[in-house]
Design brief:
Elements: E1 3-8, E2 16-21, H1 23-36, E3 43-44, E4 49-51, E5 57-61, E6 69-73, E7 76-81, H2 83-99, E8 103-107, E9 116-121
Parallel strand pairs: 1-4, 2-9, 5-7
Antiparallel strand pairs: 1-2, 3-5, 6-7, 8-9
Helix pairs in contact: 1-2
Length: 130
Amino acid sequence: MALRSAYSPTLNGGPTVLLWGDAAGLNALSDFLRKMLVASGAMTLSDFCEPADGRTITVRMRANRRDTGMRLNHEDLEWTLRPQVADDFAELVGALAASGKSGHQYLTCGVTDEITVMISHGEYPESLRP
């Protein structure tokens, strides 16, 4: 299955991007976040993440905290992260994958108006359409 993604305006009471899948998918996300630390430009999750809702997620690094977080960008999504936050998120996602247990982790930058990112392992079926 790897990893799937979908945006919901009302999941868990507010706008949320759900990323769900197996340990291999979570490890791919963790590795991707670490690669972003040295990336020169924006990259998408499309190599290892299938958007269940058709929305591409683009990730880019930013030096300061302002304008970080997950945001709607026209019909797609843009996730802007500071390097330290990307590294912290990679640790959290990797730990969830390594646990071997069902569970989830919220990834937020702590800024206003950002969309919550929820990473889930073993909690949702592949066929989910949030």
